[in-house]
């Protein structure tokens, strides 16, 4: 049976949405029972181990910069946060603080970066009265209203330096945050990971101050059915596997791992029974086309990432102007390009979704964003699963004959 630890500020699922999804299913009762029975017989322990046999964890006292680097190096979206004050013998609910989400970290950085830009706009990174303390003070003044209170513990001297050297100089130059960001270029990019509040803010501070991904673990003897229910109902990207009487996470079951597992079930009676059915026969997509959350190609890419985070979804279709013509797809994972590629980061406040996709495609050679991966209403479910597994994605958009977005 699954066990649960919810961060007190974790985002809980929309029950109306979950019930609506259940209501739109068109599987015959007999087939639904067969699927539930099959999934209930597959133990969580049968899933392949994490790469290297070890789940990547992030200590709670890790800095923002180091956490971003860890997630980027291992190409993962989230990771469990380990309590730095707990020893190796601590039980799992004392050992882990929760999950940290890559996208939320970067959105916090981007949302607060403009305050560092204001500080630096005094003239240069070494302007009179401006130093790490001043930048940190400005960041903390902003965060005091919107973010972690711990960052606001600054000395009177630091605040004074900010007021005397930063704010006054900024008013004299008449530059606002977006303008400052545009002018600072490489200096602005460097300051994000080298100056306050970014340099000293730790992951545990953010976990305690923001609403993060729910920490809902399962046990090795739980079934795949349990894991699937948690992933779908709570809109999770991954589920930790933990032995109740042990102190560490044994494995992480991700959405992509589930899709790959399903693809390997071809040939089994229960799988073939649904694989031959078309998307429309399965009642897919569950969400009607007028409810699909999307982003226009001329809208800011930062707005796309904010929308994903607010709606707790992993990606958005990009449509042409005000039409429903699908031209691309942006995943929450793609937010890393804003921080890791200076040519994108230096203009993130004015970068449109189309410019973002075009730049990433030209610099990385990636074809995942453009053209988008799609399917039609008559596409067999088995083919969709194969595409998802082969492309290592967990989202595919449904279009009509004119590439108009349906779901």
From TrEMBL:
Residues 49-115, 211-270, 287-346, 368-407 form the CBS domain. Pfam families: CBS. The keyword Plastid does not apply. InterPro entries: AMPK_gamma/SDS23_families (IPR050511), CBS_dom (IPR000644), CBS_dom_sf (IPR046342). The keyword Nucleus does not apply. Keywords: CBS domain, Membrane, Repeat, Transmembrane, Transmembrane helix. The chain crosses the membrane at residues 115-143, 149-169. This is CBS domain-containing protein.
